[in-house]
Each structure stands twice: as C-alpha cells, then as structure tokens.
Amino acid sequence: MSDALKVALLGCGTVGGAVLRLLSEQSEDLAARIGRRVEVAGVAVRRPDRHPDVPADLLTTDALGLVTRPDVDLVVEVIGGIEPARSLLLAAIGAGKSVVSANKALLADDGVALHAAASEAGVDLYYEAAVAGAIPLLRPLRESLAGDQLRRVVGIVNGTTNYILSRMAETGAGFGEALAEATEAGYAEADPTADVDGFDAAAKAAILASLAFHSPVTSADEYREGISAVSATDVARAAEIGCTVKLLAICERVAGADGADDSVAVRVHPAMIPTSHPLAAVGGAFNAVFVEAEAAGELMFYGRGAGGEPTASAVLGDLVAVARNRLAGVAGPGTTGYAGLTVRPMAETPTRYHVSLDVADKPGVLATVAQEFAANGVSIATVRQDGHGEAATLVIVTHRAPDAALAATVTRLREMSAVRGVTSVLRVEGLS
Amino acid sequence: MSDALKVALLGCGTVGGAVLRLLSEQSEDLAARIGRRVEVAGVAVRRPDRHPDVPADLLTTDALGLVTRPDVDLVVEVIGGIEPARSLLLAAIGAGKSVVSANKALLADDGVALHAAASEAGVDLYYEAAVAGAIPLLRPLRESLAGDQLRRVVGIVNGTTNYILSRMAETGAGFGEALAEATEAGYAEADPTADVDGFDAAAKAAILASLAFHSPVTSADEYREGISAVSATDVARAAEIGCTVKLLAICERVAGADGADDSVAVRVHPAMIPTSHPLAAVGGAFNAVFVEAEAAGELMFYGRGAGGEPTASAVLGDLVAVARNRLAGVAGPGTTGYAGLTVRPMAETPTRYHVSLDVADKPGVLATVAQEFAANGVSIATVRQDGHGEAATLVIVTHRAPDAALAATVTRLREMSAVRGVTSVLRVEGLS
Predict the structure, then answer these.
(1) Are B111 and B146 members of one domain?
(2) Of A6, A204, A246, A362, which one is the catalytic site residue?
(3) Which of A270, B42, B62, B119 pairs with A358 at a CA distance of 20 to 30 A?
(4) Same domain, A321 and A224
C-alpha cells in the first residue's frame, strides 16, 4: 500500500476525542474502504497539557501551521464557533486540503463563501456532522434525492429542547422546572441560550434549506422563536386537540402567486403537531427530520443528534468519502445555489395557528370572535366551545394564512372586551 | 454545454414510466446537478405497441443492441427478475456502461458477480431503488456509516405484509381476511407469494446484509418464514404483552464465542416487537429500517417502500451520482467483501421466543413446563399465568437462546400431557 493519507485534527474535545479513537480502532476497516491507510498528522488544541491521552508529538498549538503543512491531505475541524475555525478552514482550503467539519454555526453563516473557496480550489467541503449528529441527512439530501424536487423539510434538530418539551408533556411541568431537570440530567448546558432560544436549530435549518432548495440561506434570513415562552397550558391544550408540542425547524418551498417565482420559507419555532405524525413520537434527546419530496413522498430520518460518538461517526463517514475523492483526484458534489430562490419574509409565510380563549359565556361571543378572524382574512378550520358557568373556553384552529394576518388577529382578540384572556397561542404544523 | 449523456432505459412499466417523466420534468435541475444534460437514447420494451406515450423512435425490442450502442453512457434497468436482466446488465457493463438498477432479486442472487464485473470494467453499479423504494438507505449504509461498525439492521421492507399485519392488528381479522382486503385495496398482487412468503423481504435482507457487513450474502443463505401462519391469536397475544407483530428482515453481526470469528445472521420472519420500538409505529404500506451502529447508536429510515414515483426518485438519485462519476472519470464506492464474514445457520442464531400455552390449572404444571425450557438450555425472562376454572394460560417470553434450542423446546411442549395446546409461538425482537 502506498503512503498513508494524513489527517490534521482541529480541536480535541468530546467529538475530537471520539474521532481519534475511531480512527485508531477502525483503522483496518477504513483502509479497506478508502484503499489507503489514514494517519493522524497532528492535533491542534489550545492547551496541550489537558490532553494527556494524545501522543505529545501530535499535539500542537499552531493550528494554522498544521493545516498548511505540505504533508497534510485532509483537515477535520471540530472546534466549533466562527473564529478561528473560519480562518483555519479557508487557509486549509487555500492550501489545497479537503475539509470535513462539524461546525453548524460556521456553515450556516458562511457556507456560501466556504463552498466558493472549496469549489475554486477543487477540494471537498463535507459537514454531515453539523446537522443532526449521526443521522445521515445531508448526503441523502444532496445525493439520494438529487433527481427529485423537495417540497418541505421539517426537523426536530435540537435534543435539549426536545428533551425539555418531552418532559413537560410527560410530567405537566412548566418550562422552568423542565429546564432545571434537563440541566441536572446533563441535557442542557449551564448557559442554555443557544438551544432554548432556537439559535442552534436555526443554524441547522439554514444548512438544510440551502441544500434542499439549492439556494443560499443563512441564519439571519430566518424567523426564530425559542421555547422559553411555551407554558404548561400550551402543552395541555395541545394534548386536548390530539397534538404534542415540538420545536421545529421548517424549510418549505412556497409557490409564487400569479406566476411569481417560488420562494423559500425558513423558520424555527415551537408548534403543535398531531400525535399521529411520525415526528410526534420522537422523544427525549433524539432528533428526526421529516422530508416531503414530489416523487419520493414522505421520508423520515431518525437518530441521535448529538454526543461525541454519534457525531464522530458522521465525521468519519465524510472522511472516507473525502479521502476516496482525493485518491481519485476528484471533488464530490458541492452545494449548488443554481436555483437562487429568495427567502420569504415570515409575515408572508403561510402558517396555521391554534388559539385558546377564555370568553364570557353569552350568546354572540363566538360570532364576534369569528368576525375578527374573518376581518383579517383568516379562515377558521375548527372551533371547540366549552361552557362552564358564566365563562367559556374557545379553542380555535385556523386554516393557513399569512403569519402576519394571524398575529394581527391575536393582537385584536386580546383587545376585545368579550375576551377575558388569550390562554394559549401556538402555531400548528402537520395537519392535513 | 458539451454533448448530453445518453441513457438507455430497460423496461417501461410503472417505474420506467415514472423515470421517463422525471427525466423530462427535472431536466433543468438534473443538468445543473450533473453539469451536463441527460438524454434518453432508447427504451427497450417487449411490446412497443403498449407504450403509445413514448416517442416511437425511442422504443426498441432489441435490448441487447441498445445497451451496447456506442453512444449510450448509462443504463437504467427496471425490468426486474433474473433473466434477461442479468445478461443485459453484464453486457452493458462489459461494454463500459455504468448501470443503475432497481432489481432486488438479481442483486440478491448475483450481486457478487455483477459487482466483480463492474469493478473490473471500472464502471458504477448502483441500486438504491432495490431496497425500500425511495428511502435513502444503501447510500447511507455504504457511505455515511463507512467509518462506523454496524451491529444490526432490522427492517420492515415489504409494504404488502406490513399492510396485512397492520389491518389484522386494527380489526382483529385473520390472515386470510386481511389478505383479501389487501388484494382488494391494490396492496397485494393477484399471486401474493413473493410478498406473503417473505421472498421479497429476503432478497432485500441479502442486499442489506452484504452492504452492512462487507460480506457476500445471498437469499439462499437466509432463514425465511412468511406471514401466512400468523393468526389473529398471535396478534392478540402480542397486544397483551405490549407488542405488535411485524414481518422483519434482520441482519446481525454475531460475536464468535471463545475467540472464534464473528459471523452474520440474516433472517426474515414475523416477530413481536414492543409498541414503544420506533418500528412498531410503521403502519400500512410504509417501510422503515432500523440500524444500530457502534458509534452512531440507533438510527431509523422511514418512507414509501414501493410505487412508481418513489422508486423512480431513488433511480434518479443514483443516476445523478453515476453520471457525475462518469464525467469525472471515476467509479463510486463499490460493494466490498473484505470482511468475508460467514453466514451463521439459523439453528445457531440467538433469538427469543414468545410461547402461549393452554395448560391444566393444577399445582406443578408451571414447574414442569419451566423444567422443559431449562432442559433445553433456555432461560425464561417472564411468565404470566392466568387461571380460569380448571384450565390456565401460560404466556412465556424467553431470553436469547440458539433458535434450535427454542424450537426443540416448543416441540417437546406440544408433546407434554399437562399442555393442552400451544396457542401461539412467535419470535420476539427489540426487547432490551
């Protein structure tokens, strides 16, 4: 066998450590699959003294020197965050190295620039691990479904929020209590903002939308709403209408009206989905992504979305592909922006709302409320009215309408004298 | 753009028709993704007069002439069956064409020979559509998980039997009644043997096992048992222990005892699985495949396993990959048999049984029955005993034991005087 392929590893935390372990344990298998042995050329870390398990001669603090070393063929980046990862990857690509990254924030923000650099240098940029951990998702989207037209990608792509919402549904706890439990159980970080406020899911949604619709989408283009405002009442109301609450990353192709071009709607927010929907059963820290394509119909991909080992599995799958491409002297399919669809503003994106109201139990209230929906051009799908003494509860699910019209309706309802309180407002997805 | 890539289509039934339609509708997208236009060079059919929708100058009855035409680059085979598909594909490969096939029977029987031919000719042989229709499964197995070690692949890969078993569970009907309903609804063929007796699932299991374990497995190596013996009682008993009955294709890596090499166990049979298992919720004609890997953990792939459009979607995904490889002058990753694991006989494969017995309700019967399990080296996991008058029911679930030991135990139970009848015997999967 000829000379080994040399890999530079950037970062050696949980994921990096698992990558090193798998590279060693699976070395025979990897060599058989790639056709060449793979060797670690070096591991760039900030504090070498914190990595006693890694051979000292591999450790370096000079990441830039490592990724531009002439003998390095492939670079694996598991540092995360924008800088220094961005500069290091651009330097690696500029030096002709192929790159595997698990960095969702970077790919979501700077995917277009990184892809352009990789394409110009004729090298690969793969990042299966950046979305939904071990679940093979990006490769199916960009390769298996390459002959199909995608309509919609809806995912549970953040394990922390899914764990919290699952516990709220199971125990009736409020958000704060469930978050405390998740922190205790190790499912939430000390600062849970990135997860709880939907930043992590939004980065993944940007990557998914870009691949699914061959159009550049960044996190900044998206509507984003986290789960901290989801109440025990919201979860209970969901159960009453046969639904469960999930934080969803939703990427849709929306047909243009009157011959206008199609556009892409990308959003992250909590939503009620029917318990019969395949995503509803995805509990705890698991991830799943539901895909609707013209010809393939409905597909779902399910698995562990985080953790060192699952993420390392995705990194190594990419590494095998990138290594094979390098030996063959080719680059794999990149991300293409040829469709160039624009991102639709949230206000104009069609959504459905669930609204629960406490109202006075007297004749005419339903008519008044219904009139308010109609005045905003919102069509009601179902209403349930439960009287109890002098008060009544109205539970309303709308048809699809522009999000702004729905939001405006809710604002008006809050001002109506017949409405004593709006007790729950949440979008609804997955209803036929 | 340079000359178009030319595709020969073999067969023009439901799938072939959908392939032609997608090639036409998606032609702009396909050209953008491949970097070259794709053109249909010809369509080989037996009866040209039955295809009025296909331009007459494309139709031919000379399939061999078509696949060896010098201007043809790629061959798509959707004829099915062993011959003439086998000879045509070998001729195409011999003439240097890359091949996309949806032919599970052929790949299961002759995959090794076809792969060897493709490898020698330096061309691609892709067949995502052969297993689980539109569900991206083979590409994830052979590429995304290439850096991981697979433990187990368990699939619901036949929609007809899943529809029948789903209806039995929903309505309490027996097998015959549910089959009649499936035939009526168009989910079962006039001759349902291939589906109902597990031949279709067994072919898919052979393909999955070969890819998952890098070892040659054919249908002939497998244990196969269909669903015609599954009774309404079996389905009811499953529900009583929190399970549901599914026809499963199971491919496992079994550790060798005392330093012996690992082996592969491949089998298709009905089994009870817990309703909490992700596969249990897969109803109707849907397919799903559950994968357990060392590092990635548990994964599941779900979607439509049959039908013209979904299958055509998978064919076109392969076509894009094969076309890109051809333009780059490379071949994609083939199937490798480097692991060379042997297939373990069913008798020695560890399984678990559920057994329901009618017994006389008198002291000592349970002890006698339990003794029979012990005598065969089978350990009991749970027993439920329900007395009703002078008779009682015993519901037993065993731990894992060699299948032959479990089968021998059941044979002995049937002969015992204290046992009035063995009312249900079914293997159990997915219990922890």
Answers:
(1) no
(2) A204
(3) A270
(4) no
Instruction: Name the residue range of residue A38's domain.
Output: 5-134+308-328
A 132-151 residues with CB < 8 A to B: 134-136, 139-140, 143-149
CA A48 from centroid of its chain's CA atoms: 33
Residue A94 CA to residue A220 CA, distance in Å, equals 27
The domain spanning residue B175 has which CATH number? 3.30.360.10
Contact status, residue A319 vs residue B147, Cβ threshold 8 Å: yes
Q: Which amino acid is at A162?
A: N
Residue at A335 is within a domain: no
Mean pLDDT of A71-86: 97
Chain A nearest CA to B114, separation (Å)? 19
Q: Is residue A291 part of a domain?
A: yes
Same domain, A155 and A278: yes
3-state secondary structure chain A: CCCCEEEEEECCCHHHHHHHHHHHHCHHHHHHHHCCCEEEEEEECCCHHHCCCCCCCCEECCHHHHHCCCCCCEEEECCCCCCCHHHHHHHHHHCCCEEEECCHHHHHHHHHHHHHHHHHHCCCEECHHHCCCCCCCHHHHHHHCCCCCEEEEEEECCHHHHHHHHHHHHHCCCHHHHHHHHHHCCCCCCCCHHHHCCHHHHHHHHHHHHHHHCCCCCHHHCEECCCCCCCHHHHHHHHHCCEEEEEEEEEEEECCHHHCCCEEEEEEEEEEEECCCHHHHCCCCEEEEEEEECCCEEEEEEEECCCHHHHHHHHHHHHHHHHHHHHHCCCCCCCCCCCCCEECCHHHCEEEEEEEEEEECCCCHHHHHHHHHHHCCCCEEEEEEEEECCEEEEEEEECCEEHHHHHHHHHHHHHCCCEEEEEEEEEECCCC
Amino acid at the residue B238 = A
Mean pLDDT value of segment A238-261 = 93
Q: Are residues B296 and B422 in the same domain?
A: no
**Structure pTM?**
0.92
* Cβ–Cβ gap B149/A319 under 8 Å: no
Residues B169-212 pLDDT 10s: 999 999 999 999 999 999 999 999 999 999 999 999 999 999 99
Each residue of B275-309: pLDDT tens digit?
989 899 898 889 999 999 999 999 999 999 888 99
Same domain, A357 and A316: no
Angle at B57 between CA B52 and CA B59, to 5 degrees: 60
Q: Containing H/E element for B208?
A: helix B199-213
- Give chain A's domain count: 3
Q: Which one of B299, B322, B335 makes the best mutation probe of the A interface by having the most chain A beta carbons within 10 Å?
A: B299
| pLDDT beyond 60 at A108 | yes
- A30 and chain B: CB distance < 8 Å anywhere? yes
Q: Are residues B76 and B192 in the same domain?
A: no
Q: Are residues B411 and B278 in the same domain?
A: no
Find, in chain B, the residue whose alpha carbon is nearest to that of A211: B33
Paired residues of B385 in beta bridges: B394
Please answer whether residues B173 and B235 qualify as being in contact, where contact means their C-beta atoms are separated by less than 8 angstroms: no
Distance between start and end Cα atoms, chain B:
57
The DSSP output letter for B276 is T
Q: CA–CA separation, A129 vs B192, rounded Å?
A: 42
The verdict on a CB contact (< 8 Å) between A148 and B316 is yes
Is the same domain home to A71 and A128?
yes
Whole-angstrom distance, CA of residue B426 vs CA of residue B121: 46
